[in-house]
Amino acid sequence: MRAPAFWWQGPGALSLALSPLAAAYGHVAGRRLETAPRVPLPVPVICVGNPTVGGAGKTPLALALGQAARARGLNPAYLTRGYGSRARSPVLVDPQASAARDVGDEPLLLSRVGPTVVCPDRARGAEHLLSAVRADLVIMDDGFQSAQIHPDLAVLVVDGKRGFGNGRVLPAGPLRAPLVSQLRRADVLVVVGEGEGAGAAARASARAGRTMLRAHLASVRPERFSGARVLAFAGIGDPEKFYATLRAAGAHIVATRDFPDHHRLTEAEMAALIKEAMSADLKLVTTSKDAARLSGESGLAASLRSCLDVLDVELRFAEEDQPERLIEMAFSAFERRRFSPGSGRSTSAG
């Protein structure tokens, strides 16, 4: 699905026409955030979510937290719905054998850092995860609005350029629930990149009394693309962010091809990309998420994967130790929860 352009513009006729539906959706989503029972786990939980639909840097933050946890000698594990996966019951992702069509693209990236379980029912997924692996920290990639698991630290990732869009709730705007309800349940906002949205996030976090951190996406080994003539394609929430990062690495982007977020390329689309790149002598470049979608596939998908270059990115904070500080915040909150009266039922750790 492509996010409608009017979501990221000022309030207009379309958002006004959809406001009755948005009011109904917002009421349900806000009530769930405020009142839904959340299952506490016997280990610290960090939930990384987006206040809006579309890419903001949620998975890069989840990866950065997992890497920081491992650097501290911890055993982090991931819990995610696995958008686009076929899983209806808990599945432990195999980074070598699992295919994106079965588990989703983002879980494949997460599984390179730590054990990852995919399940639309996060409570069932958590039970399976903690019985299958030894984990002393669970990082949820998404799951903030579903309100199924009690987070010890809830982090919302905001795109510095787009911010909260027109400030309306789905379908009138990009917000997944009323912003006030989301901020009430969040502990930290991480703003990724620069732009007008960063100012809106700063004002919102100040009003809500929430911590705000700044970060940006940086390419890994950008020198590989310096001076290269490129055909770039992406099926992510904000392809322009990928193209801008690629240009900053020194690439000369001759052509781009945009696809909907999480899009699985058809045979015709793959053949067209290969043909166009070969005929114009262009380097095919895509995102790590798009490349993951080709993993475990044969035929034309395997051919496309073999001739691709992948622009890997990582999240870098304004202060290098901020991922470690977020982990410390989660462990401190967990200790308070563990020793507080009536802290509730915990899913078995196995």
Helix content: 25-40%
What is the gyration radius calculated from CA atoms?
Answer: 20 Å
Shape from CA axes? globular
Q: Report strand %.
A: 15-25%
Characterize the main sheet. 9 strands, mixed
The helix/strand order is HHEHEEHHEHEEHEHEEHEHEHHEEH
**Which sequence of strands runs across the widest sheet?**
3-4-2-5-1-6-7-8-13
Indicate the CATH class of the largest domain.
Answer: Alpha Beta
In CATH terms, what is the architecture of the largest domain? Answer: 3-Layer(aba) Sandwich
> Mean pLDDT across all residues, rounded?
92
C-alpha end-to-end distance: 39 Å
Question: What features would you describe in this structure?
Answer:
The chain is of the alpha/beta class. The chain folds into 2 domains: 20-217 and 316-338, Rossmann fold (3-Layer(aba) Sandwich), CATH 3.40.50; 221-311, Rossmann fold (3-Layer(aba) Sandwich), CATH 3.40.50. It is built from 13 helices and 13 strands. The strands form 2 sheets. It has a 9-stranded mixed sheet, with helices on both faces. A 4-stranded parallel sheet has the order 10-9-11-12, sandwiched between helices. Strand 7 (188-192), helix 8 and strand 8 form a beta-alpha-beta unit. The longest helix is centred in the first third of the chain and has 17 residues, at 19-35. It is globular and about 65 Å long. Residues 344-350 have low confidence and may be disordered.
